[in-house]
Amino acid sequence: MNERVLLKLSGETLAAGNLSIDPKRLIIVADEIKDAFKLKRFQLAIVIGAGNLWRGAGKDMERTAADKIGMIATVMNSIALKNELLRNGLPAEVFCPRNVSSLVKEYDSETVIHYLNSGCITILAGGTGNPFFTTDSGAALRAAEIKASVVIKATQIDGIYSDDPKKNKKAVKYDYLSFEDALAQHLKVMDETAFALCAASNIGILVFDFYQKGNLAKVIVGENIGTFVGKR
Fold this sequence. Notes:
Layout: E1 3-9, H1 23-37, E2 42-48, H2 63-87, E3 92-96, E4 105-106, H3 109-117, E5 121-124, H4 135-145, E6 150-155, E7 160-161, E8 173-174, E9 176-178, H5 179-184, H6 192-201, E10 204-209, H7 215-220, E11 227-230
Parallel strand pairs: 1-2, 1-6, 2-5, 3-4, 3-5, 6-10, 9-11
Antiparallel strand pairs: 7-8, 10-11
């Protein structure tokens, strides 16, 4: 395993119907990760959001308190995903920068890198550990800290388009974009803080359709799917 990548999943990846964490979705997500991980071509860190359990933005609650609840929700999702990966025979561990040491391990970049080098999938919960930052920003920060070469962002769309493809049939899909071009065109790759951090750290961003079976494995072997954002 040579390349180190960080997979950013949305919390909604685990949800279905009225279930915020659907066991069937957990199985599907774990199967996709297993099919890719068995290729043994990369080290894998994962950051998962909390949108299936909690969305702080817009709630009638003080922002710091709302974001703390969101951090806890990412821990819940991370534990659920870890459990399913273990059930599939994959080594996995959860780390969090906030003190929940009775539930998961305390985050430290050197420790996480040690686990990655040993072949363990690391799930990095708790965002940045601070309010006012999204899990996209958390993913970008962790990618920089663990020296990942790319952030693979799982979405329901097969890449980045010039416009919303659901609203504009003439929208053009990009195979590659420079950081500068993506910024100039105001394309919503990740939130601005996350995008700026990836650009400053020269960490590529690959946006792809995670919901298409087998796509994660295709990304790992280098098939030309999704949209890659990188240095010009």
